[in-house]
Amino acid sequence: MSVDINKSDGPADAPRDAAPAAPQAIKAVPVRHYGRYVSAAVAIGLLAAIVYAFAQGKINWAAVPAYFFDDRILRGVGQTMLLTVISMLIGVVGGVLLAVMRLSKNPVTSSVAWFYIWFFRGTPVLVQLMVWFNLGLVFEYINLGPIYKDYWSSFMTPFLTALLGLGLNEAAYMAEICRAGLLSVDEGQTEASHALGMSHAKTLRRVVIPQAMRVIVPPTGNEVINMLKTTSLVATVQFYELLRYAQDIGQTSGSPVEMLFLAAAWYLLLTSVLSVGQYYLERYYARGSSRSLPQTPLQRVRANLLSLGRPKGGMA
Amino acid sequence: MTTTSMTTPAATGSRPMVKAEGVHKSFGTAHILKGIDLEVAPREVFCLIGPSGSGKSTFLRCINHLEKINAGRLSVDGELVGYRQRGDKLYELKDSEVARKRRDIGMVFQRFNLFPHMTALENVMEAPVQVRGEAKASARARAERLLDRVGLADRAGNYPSQLSGGQQQRVAIARALAMEPKLMLFDEPTSALDPELVGDVLDVMRGLAEDGMTMIVVTHEMGFAREVGDALVFMDDGVVVESGHPRDVLTNPQHERTKSFLSKVL
Prior knowledge:
- The complex is a heterodimer of chains A (316) and B (266).
- By secondary structure, chain A is an all-alpha fold.
- Chain A has helices spanning 14-18, 34-56, 63-68, 71-103, 107-122, 125-133, 152-155, 158-184, 187-195, 200-230, 242-253, 256-285, 297-309; strands at 141-143, 149-151.
- A two-stranded antiparallel sheet of chain A has the order 1-2.
- Chain B has 266 residues and is of the alpha/beta class.
- In chain B, 35% of the residues lie in helices and 26% in strands.
- Chain B has a six-stranded mixed sheet, sandwiched between helices.
- In chain B, a hairpin with a 2-residue loop joins β6 (83-86) and β7.
- In chain B, α3 (120-130) runs parallel beside α5 (165-177), α4 (136-149) crosses α5 (165-177) and α5 (165-177) runs parallel beside α6 (195-210).
- The chains are: A mainly alpha (316), B alpha/beta (266).
């Protein structure tokens, strides 16, 4: 490589370098997509019709904001979130356990796990909830020796019924998600860890699970959102959560349908918050999988705003 | 177990680092290793060559018990691989005991197998910290030295996906060295690399050999075998066909099979 003496006083030859780097931009008449205009007009028309219909209906919309932050509604939201979190915890812990059991070399543990998944995935969760609630017909009382003894009906509170029903059912689904995640990690990773002298448990914890998370997190986010909505089923076993409170208010205030809209709005709000959380979690587990991490929405907005201030291209 | 191999290696000067006697291995009905006998001396660079499917990699994986042998005896530094002998009875080792023995044997894979969710530095620190319980500070210092040794000091913070194949393989070598092994196994370390990246990896291996590391290298790099190797074995169809000093075997092969193989690869 020959070094030019002139190169050292930079600015002198800068324009010479820049000159060939500005090609003539193509100017052409763009293709018109008339189909797109038509479909956009149809979609907007339909949307307007639906909004108009609801605005015209005999619904007292003012009742929704009036009760939106009602004490009972807020308590219901709290109960719904609590139930979602704990059921999901039971589901995730149980799911990991079942997935490891299914992948184990021991035929007994793997078939037990298989049977569990077969049973809980194959029956409706509403039926499971009702069965848990009514199990007092089979077990009259619960007896854990000297630790605890009580009648089944007083032991199985609505909250416990809801937790067991939702959590145990969720574990069956999470097991399949976790199993898929564990299987997605290349076998060479396990071999490399073993070759370094790592134990099975440490290999799983340090190497396999962190990589499996990339596959596990997106469907699990789905499951959390699903769980949040499924909690509305536990109204049938006398547990008071968001939907149940909304229905109660609807009965007493004489605006039952309005309260359903209110509940729907709350569910929508909660699932939206969860979606944002999922996005950041996925971003965290994408470490090392792609050369550069995707921008967070905030960074993207900031970048877009900055580019708006600048003239675009500046060629023509 | 063969009856002829019951005598323990008496103190005959230096004891071999690896000793294989009649090692057999099969996967289901496929008989991969059909009685391998060989000895690797300490500080020796021992090259294994042969066509694919000849059992070289399988044999290498038996040495650190990633594969279980079906018959014969295989020992590393005087201790049986995967078993303990009491009297004339063999006892299978527990997983934790197998893991403990693997600490002393470094392995480098054809496909690198770096941990993709950790940076180069974290890859190298992982085993000393997690397996040996070393303090992070000292493990980090040694990991930095090792990365410097393989010429990647400036890449410590990069994830494997941000490194070229040759760089990944050098990190993998540093990772294996971090456990301060007494024996290094190389399973076709340059076969997955672009030709122009092979040299850097071989240079690192050459440096290791000069430092006196005992190395068993499965390779197709005949140039490396000839220059760096102290011993060479040609394997085909699960048996050792020919062995000797690399220069002799590569320039003056005795068996027809060796000749025809070498005529294709040289």
